[in-house]
Amino acid sequence: MAKNLTRSPLAPAEFPALPVIEGVTFAAAAAGVKYAGRTDVMMAMLAPGSTVAGVFTRSATRSANVLDCQAKIGGDSDAGAAIVVNSGNSNAFTGKAGDGSVAAICNAVAMATGLPAARVFSSSTGVIGEPLPHDRIIAKIEELMGAQDETALGAAAKAIMTTDTFPKGATRSVEIGGKPVQIAGIAKGSGMIAPDMATMLVYIFTDAKVARADLQALVSRINDWTFNCITVDSDTSTSDTLLMGATGASGVMVTADNAEFEAALFDVMLDLAHQVVRDGEGATKFVTVTVTGALTDADARTHALAIANSPLVKTAIAGEDPNWGRIVMAVGKSGAAADRDKLSIRFGDILVAENGWVASTYREELGAAHMKQPEITISVDLGIGLGAATVWTCDLTHGYISINADYRS
Amino acid sequence: MAKNLTRSPLAPAEFPALPVIEGVTFAAAAAGVKYAGRTDVMMAMLAPGSTVAGVFTRSATRSANVLDCQAKIGGDSDAGAAIVVNSGNSNAFTGKAGDGSVAAICNAVAMATGLPAARVFSSSTGVIGEPLPHDRIIAKIEELMGAQDETALGAAAKAIMTTDTFPKGATRSVEIGGKPVQIAGIAKGSGMIAPDMATMLVYIFTDAKVARADLQALVSRINDWTFNCITVDSDTSTSDTLLMGATGASGVMVTADNAEFEAALFDVMLDLAHQVVRDGEGATKFVTVTVTGALTDADARTHALAIANSPLVKTAIAGEDPNWGRIVMAVGKSGAAADRDKLSIRFGDILVAENGWVASTYREELGAAHMKQPEITISVDLGIGLGAATVWTCDLTHGYISINADYRS
């Protein structure tokens, strides 16, 4: 971490007890990529027969690791797989040297494990534009292999943190055909978080047996309604990566249209996405923005993101000010269709505005009381169609400025 | 003003000496719209034969005043014209009552002045969603008419301020066919400032004789390269209005293709636009973002605005941190075309990055020294085309949070 940050007031009470996912093991190590005295590399190893799927940032300046993962992700293989992740340096905008660092790490892991290099996936997160000291990571591969442990997913969650104030994990189990299937995942992220591009770093594992194409279809579909629906600061990372591995160790076959599995995976991904928002840099409020009655779902999302990304809405929430005029402003600027005189606004269950003006039943005290809560709900009904969307965000506080005005220093 | 704000460190040394524009007079009054003890209404009166043009916010939730101005702006008339502006209340999202307030004010001014109501233009700026106490404004019309003064444009500039920390004025004179023509304007604005929609409140006057259609063509064209190229916080006002009146008192005819007049008007509008940025809420740095080498001018503007609106770029500038990686991030997320390995970045004249990585000649001390200046220049060359754009913004500081986390309270 750049500095000792106070644990977010919106953090879950505790890190969840993550189950063993048969067929995958983990280890973390302190390689000193940027800071000494903390774990900053994690390696996951998946058993032969595992499938791997992923979604990635759509940034035009994405990192060398992301480009390498994207080149590898569509391939089928019966070999196992490895995932190596470091924090402290994102290896983004590091030119040809960055490509070289990825190749050096993946080749070294391939050599040490006997895996084909095409089955070694790497991620890097941290500062942009500085050369990745990949030798320090390679020097830890033997230690990481020796320490592989099926219960170390929590340690891996800690090793990938940057400005995160708490490690993020989530798990669900689901019965499919009378047999239990486990899903567990970890994530990191708290700033440079914006949807429409994928996510931050997320690694999810299951012991279900899922064909690669089905796993990819599930992950892509659910991603669009979870990680692609969160925003902390409207800024999109050059490193966003979600990788999911299915080991098949449970023997339970799952296809892309399995509703129980999809529901459980959705829960895990939404849980992790919400934890990223809850650890938004400087966040003191967790905000749900729901837009209904839009012309289309896409329009609803455009409006919801305009609200969720508006600095004036986010600072009003930080100040516990039920300043609904700024929500009107954000709807107005979004560019999507709206009719000033048909939209209504609610804080929680409180009707604030309708018919183009403040509701006759609304009292400022009601809105102010809702704003004092740590969890805020803003609902806007546009009254012109059936489109709907929900996104999640946090407030914009002095803490965000403090963290980001000297992150590198 | 919501509270006593310290004058922006980026403010001009002093308010400019504005010339008399023959054919237009001004007055300001204290109507107590929201706060007592300050002027908060201004009225300008234009002589018969004046033409009026305007550009307005494209917000879907624009104010009742904006809708009324837009309905009136295309009309030709030999009558004079009046412009009435109040601060303290924006009369936006005030439903049918808001339309009624505009009609009440315009009709009262028409009655008192003998002008047709279609020649009375009104603007309101301030809090959204509260009923405009238009009776307080109407009660001041007689006083405003009696105090009309050709030298009172500066007093008008003060009356329209909200969170502005200094009044904004600009002037140029230009010789056309050997005869002098004067242009002078005022503006207000410091938050809820984003381009692509028009501007904040701006009123410009000239004694040139310009046909209405020509005046509109000039204002619209120049607006696109001045007010539409500034952003403080990416949030767009529901009230943005620019009105320009040409009295013709100089006897000098000007058409839309008059290069000297266009250059002078451009200077006035850019000067006012820059002053709005210099008074950006909490601003400590004035930032010029220039993008060249894009596929198209539109792409260049998209990239420039992605940089100028990025909270992470703006907080880095606030922290005087030459964190060019965040500029790479912003270019990457903008959605416009870019090639990671072809873009170069400069701070002032300092080459920071090229060929997909930090420049070999770059030293962090050089970037840090540039960042310590109150005026920062960020130049990005994408290296893939001929498109170019420049936008202006400010940094994002604790001051912005302080101002906006309790503006209404």
TrEMBL record, chains A, B:
Q: Where is this site: Involved in the stabilization of negative charge on the oxyanion by the formation of the oxyanion hole?
A: T125, G126
Keywords, comma-separated and alphabetical: Acyltransferase, Amino-acid biosynthesis, Arginine biosynthesis, Autocatalytic cleavage, Cytoplasm, Multifunctional enzyme, Transferase
What InterPro entries does UniProt report for this protein, alphabetically?
Arg_biosynth_ArgJ, ArgJ-like_dom_sf, ArgJ_beta_C
Q: What class of enzyme is it?
A: transferase
User: In the UniProt entry, which residues are flagged as the active site?
Assistant: T199
User: Catalyzes what?
Assistant: N(2)-acetyl-L-ornithine + L-glutamate = N-acetyl-L-glutamate + L-ornithine; L-glutamate + acetyl-CoA = N-acetyl-L-glutamate + CoA + H(+)
Which residue numbers mark the site Cleavage? A198, T199
Q: Which Pfam families match?
A: ArgJ
Q: Which CDD domains match?
A: OAT
Q: In which pathway does it act?
A: Amino-acid biosynthesis; L-arginine biosynthesis; N(2)-acetyl-L-ornithine from L-glutamate: step 1/4; Amino-acid biosynthesis; L-arginine biosynthesis; L-ornithine and N-acetyl-L-glutamate from L-glutamate and N(2)-acetyl-L-ornithine (cyclic): step 1/1
Q: What GO MF terms are annotated? A: L-glutamate N-acetyltransferase activity, acting on acetyl-L-ornithine as donor
Region forming the signal peptide: none
Can the keyword Acyltransferase be found in this entry's annotation?
Answer: yes
Q: What is its EC number?
A: 2.3.1.35, 2.3.1.1
Task: Give the main location.
Answer: cytoplasm
Q: Do the record's keywords include Cytoplasm?
A: yes
Family classification: Belongs to the ArgJ family.
Q: What does the record note on quaternary structure?
A: Heterotetramer of two alpha and two beta chains.
Q: What does this protein do?
A: Catalyzes two activities which are involved in the cyclic version of arginine biosynthesis: the synthesis of N-acetylglutamate from glutamate and acetyl-CoA as the acetyl donor, and of ornithine by transacetylation between N(2)-acetylornithine and glutamate.
Which PANTHER family does the record associate with it? ARGININE BIOSYNTHESIS BIFUNCTIONAL PROTEIN ARGJ, ARGININE BIOSYNTHESIS BIFUNCTIONAL PROTEIN ARGJ, MITOCHONDRIAL
Q: What is the protein's given name?
A: Arginine biosynthesis bifunctional protein ArgJ
Q: Which organism is it from?
A: Mesobacterium hydrothermale
> Lineage of the native species?
Bacteria, Pseudomonadati, Pseudomonadota, Alphaproteobacteria, Rhodobacterales
